[in-house]
Amino acid sequence: MMQTLPKCGITVKQYGKFHVREIRSDGTSHLPGLLQISLEEDKATEMFIGYIPCQNSDLVNVKQRIRFWIMEQKSQLNQVDQWINDVCDLQTQEKLYALNAVLEEHLKKIQQALRAIDDHQ
User: Residue 45 region, left (φ>0) first, then alpha (ψ -120 to 50), else beta?
Assistant: First the structure.
């Protein structure tokens, strides 16, 4: 599931709106070997995408990790659609529709940001 987080860590690379950051676990040290990929949402928050090994932080590997996130997100959307079809309780259905809307919104944001990178290549 995706998370919106306050910006943290040091951006070591940036591709469009995507930031590749050192992971700050306690505000002072970073976790060696891994970088965090996130999408800048506004000046204070970002959407967590996933982690990537430091040695794979070039654009090709970052885009591959983002595309994998998109596949995962589409799978989650399919699962929620199935739950909506399987559930008979209207209150639960409404909550699932709301979840579906949030997932779709985040998916569109990521896809648009990825397209913007692809368009500039």
Answer: beta
Task: Render 6-60 in DSSP notation, one character per residue.
Answer: E--S-EEEEETTEEEEEEESSSS-EEEEEEEEEEE-SSSEEEEEEEEEGGG-SHH
Asked if residue 48 lies in contact with residue 2, where contact means CB atoms within 8 angstroms, the answer is yes
Dig out the tokens for 57 from the structure: 């932080």
Predicted model pTM: 0.84
Rounded distance, CA 49 to CA 19, Å? 10
Instruction: Give the whole-angstrom CA distance, residue 55 versus residue 13.
Output: 12
pLDDT tens digits, residue range 1-50?
445 455 667 889 999 999 998 876 555 555 678 899 999 987 778 899 99
Task: Return the ∠ at Cα 99 (arms to 38 and 111), rounded to 5°.
Answer: 40
**First CA to last CA distance, the chain:** 30
- Per-residue pLDDT averaged across 91-95, rounded? 95
| Rounded-to-integer distance, Cα 22 and Cα 36, Å | 6
